[in-house]
Sequence to fold (248 residues):
Amino acid sequence: MSGARRTNRPRVRERSATNPLVDLADRIVACERCPRLRAYCEEIARVKRRAFRDEPYWGRPVPAFGDPVARLLILGLAPAAHGANRTGRMFTGDSSRSWLYETLHEFGWASQPTSTRRDDGLRLRGAYVTASARCAPPGNRPTPVELANCRPYLVEEIALLSRVRVVLCLGRIAFDTYLRSLDDLAAPWPKPRPAFRHGGVWRSASARQPVLVALYHPSRQNTNTGRLTPAMWRRVFARCRALVDESG
Fold:
């Protein structure tokens, strides 16, 4: 299948044989836990979209991207079929890339405001970008079982990214996935359990637990309808910047 079995491996910052985040990324790329998602991603990579017919598609699970000593963790939903499933980098190749990486650059977390492909020179400083599902799902809707299959990877990332002070969840699914990951880690949270709302900020009962922030996902459904505006998006990132800086 064209592009679906390429042997080039994703780049993770500070790549090393002893870097556990690199080992985790390799395991994610090789994952076969969800047959429906694997078949869909490989079919998309074979057929392609006309605009990208001359480009190789990644067509595999997409690893996270960012700084191993990040203080901000950004959690999205899943790769887009012709976005990250094509480029192999989270939030790269579709309309959401300009929302995320332009803002990360504005607030000092990215080396450049654009993200077009894995080898475009972009580096994140103090931020890490991951997702609830690592394979592009049909209709952007992973099933509960598929989300549960993928969640152990997020749990492992949370444990490895010990310097994170703020977790920003893009959308309700990411928000719920993060809280379930905390349950898996037996991490304390106040009762009642937080409920998603755009711009919400929650602090754990433990001072060591990162602050949780919620934001609408920059999907076309939200941005084209005005449910999420650039001003709304930027305000939440400004709050995240302040929270990270306040954490020392």
The longest strand covers residues 72-76. The chain has one domain: 20-246. Strands lie at 65-66, 72-76, 127-131, 166-170, 201-202, 211-215. Confidence is low (pLDDT under 50) at residues 1-16.
